Amino acid sequence: MSRSLFDRIAPVYNLFFGYQVRSFRTILSRAGRHIIIPPNARVLDIGCGTGALAFCLHERGYRVTGVDVSSGMIDRARKKHRNTGVRLVVGNALEGLPFHDKDFDLVMASYVAHGMGPAARQAFYREARRLATKQVIFQDYNERRKLLSDAVEWLEGGNYFHFVLHAEEGMRGVFSSVEVRSFASQVAWYICTP
């Protein structure tokens, strides 16, 4: 999907901020033990959208930076994060993000990778690896697909179908280790070591 499309749909995403926060809190309560960094560590949320995951990570005591390709998403995230200390930046992981190598202890991305083609996804993985010292976690779809998700993803025109079949294999080509854990009906954490 294009940057301009995300700018246009940012108001719709914004309507679901509360729902997303509740969902991320649930996943983090189930999966949080797999995060190997201590509170106050530096975390980057790539593809942060309106900032729901960044919000939840900040609640857990991390120093969070959120980045998104869409200035519309970042504008809405800034309104949600007034006075929180969460840093929000417009940037594109496929063009290189404006951070130094190993600037973050943990890099996370939620429902970003599945929308990219295989070559772009490999570049995305390499950029996440470049920025992380300890861990990279991709929260995305697992192989337990549902008709509604299939339909929505088909309409969006991403590479979801390839992703759900080859996600772990693609990550293993970039990271020294990959562990896949499912925490809900369609939610997996792909826990990677740079």
Q: Could you give a quick summary of the protein structure above?
A:
Helix content is 43%, strand content 23%. With 194 residues, it is of the alpha/beta class. The radius of gyration is 15 Å and the shape is globular.
Provide structural commentary.
The chain has 194 residues and is an alpha/beta fold. The chain has a single domain, classed as Vaccinia Virus protein VP39 (Rossmann fold). The chain has 7 helices and 7 strands. A 7-stranded mixed β-sheet has the order 3-2-1-4-5-7-6, with helices on both faces. Helix 5 links the parallel strand 4 and strand 5. The relative contact order is 0.15.
Rg, alpha carbons: 15 Å
Question: Mean pLDDT, as a whole number?
Answer: 89
Level-1 CATH class name: Alpha Beta
Structural class: alpha/beta
Instruction: Count up the domains.
Output: 1
Identify the overall geometry: globular
The share of residues in extended strands comes to 15-25%
The strand line-up of the biggest sheet is: 3-2-1-4-5-7-6
Low-confidence stretches: none
Helix content: 40-55%
Strands, count: 7
Largest sheet: 7 strands, mixed
Key descriptive features of the protein:
alpha/beta, Rossmann fold, 7 strands, 43% helix, globular
How do the strands and helices of this protein lay out in sequence?
Layout (H helix, E strand, L loop, with lengths): L2 H13 L1 H15 L10 E5 L5 H8 L3 E6 L2 H10 L6 E4 L13 E7 L7 H14 E10 L5 H10 L3 H13 L4 E6 L4 E7 L1
Parallel strand pairs: 1-2, 1-4, 2-3, 4-5
Antiparallel strand pairs: 5-7, 6-7
